[in-house]
Design brief:
By secondary structure, the protein is mainly α. 68% of the residues lie in helices and 0% in strands. The protein has one domain.
């Protein structure tokens, strides 16, 4: 069994509290400040407010409007597309 498989088996059977304790133990053993900085950056990505919280009200409203539009809103029929781009495709 490879190291990865052993690790996956060990971690997959942990409870939330066991996993937290395991991670704290692992982090406590890190002596390299650069690794700790990387860990902090990665962790903050998942624990800080979501991206929507970083947008202005105007940008958030625009994003929500775009997300709610039908997927085929600006879709042109193939005939219209071929007619519009015909001059570029000719030799």
């Amino acid at each position: 069994m490879t190291f990865i498989r052993k690790f996956e088996t060990k971690v997959s059977s942990m409870t939330l509290q066991q996993r937290q304790a395991y991670l704290i133990e692992q982090i406590s053993g890190v002596k390299d400040e650069n690794i700790l900085i990387l860990l902090e950056e990665e962790l903050s990505h998942y624990t800080e407010q979501d991206v929507a919280g970083l947008l202005s009200d105007k940008d958030l409203n625009e994003l929500m409007t775009l997300a709610e539009e039908p997927a085929d809103k600006n879709v042109a029929a193939e005939d219209e597309y071929l007619k519009a781009t015909g001059k570029w495709r000719s030799r």
